[in-house]
Amino acid sequence: MRIPFTKMHGLGNDFVVLDARIDALPPIGPATAAGISDRRTGIGCDQLILLQPSDVADFRMRIFNADGGEVEACGNASRAVALLHGSKASVETAGGTIAMEPMGNGARIDMGTPRFGWDEIPLAYAMDTLAMPVAWENLENPCAINVGNPHAIFFVEDGPSVPLERLGPEIECDALFPERINVNVAQVTGPASIDLRVWERGSGLTRACGTGACATAVAAIRRGVVSGRRIAVTLPGGTLDIEWTEAGRIMMTGPATTSFIGSFEWTDYA
Ligand SMILES: N[C@@H](CCC[C@H](N)C(=O)O)C(=O)O
């Protein structure tokens, strides 16, 4: 059985998008998602995106990390899917319903409202999530925020010097985070600008993480380390415009790109 796919990316965070909104696909579980995502034996991507019909929104977007785990949110894929869909849409995700609007060479996404409760991140036990009393070597006092998916944000003086390849997986899998965590290392570079590197839960170092940019902008505003509510967040793959509105919603604007389209032979990856 041949399956069509679209290969897309948002600032170099890349996706295989499978569209099952009209024609259903065989069930996709962790082994299939990991198999398709494998860069040597599959198509290769940071996240596999599956579009399906929805009862509560225009359509449903399911997100699988490269390790095969299904997760709640993906900011960069949201812009890519907005581009693919081509018009405004409400989209059901496991992290909540989001609103997409294609714009220029990308999209503007209403990512919803952030959550700050320790049990909403979730953490293993109660603590202040604005400046957590924990440290991993020189990475200390992160902010924890759930923007559909869980993020820890460390503000540092010198982002590039942080050994994120080594500390990222350690923090991601720490027992403090029962659902694991995305690890963000942020350096404030101006009153409304931040440089960001992200170790993504289930995918590792990526060129960009849209939800990481949203969580980091909100953390910076709450900590008072930036002025105003609109922040330019620059990741290795480029810059996103993040606004945390007075009404409490996170608006993300940035580019998305179709790399190529193709088809592959469905395999039993189990
Ligand atoms: N690349 C994404 C985030 C994908 C999910 C994340 N790795 C998780 O496990 O929560 C983005 O652009 O937000």
Give an overview in words.
- The chain is of the alpha+beta class and 270 residues long.
- It has helices spanning 30-37, 75-85, 164-172, 210-223; strands spanning 2-10, 13-19, 47-52, 59-65, 70-71, 89-93, 96-103, 106-110, 135-136, 139-140, 143-146, 150-155, 182-190, 193-200, 204-205, 230-235, 238-244, 250-255, 257-265.
- The protein has two domains: 2-110 and 256-265, Diaminopimelate Epimerase, Chain A, domain 1; 135-248, Diaminopimelate Epimerase, Chain A, domain 1 (Roll).
- Strand 6 and strand 7 form a beta hairpin.
- The longest helix has 14 residues, at 210-223.
- The two termini are 17 Å apart.
- The model has no long low-confidence stretch (mean pLDDT 97).
- Bound molecules: ligand LBFN2T5F.
- Ligand LBFN2T5F binds next to strand 4, helix 2 and helix 4.
What are the key terms here?
single chain; 270 residues; alpha+beta; Diaminopimelate Epimerase, Chain A, domain 1; 2 domains; 17-stranded mixed beta sheet; two-stranded antiparallel ribbon; 4 helices; 16% helix; binds ligand LBFN2T5F; isomerase; Diaminopimelate epimerase; DAP_epimerase_DapF; diaminopimelate epimerase activity; amino-acid biosynthesis
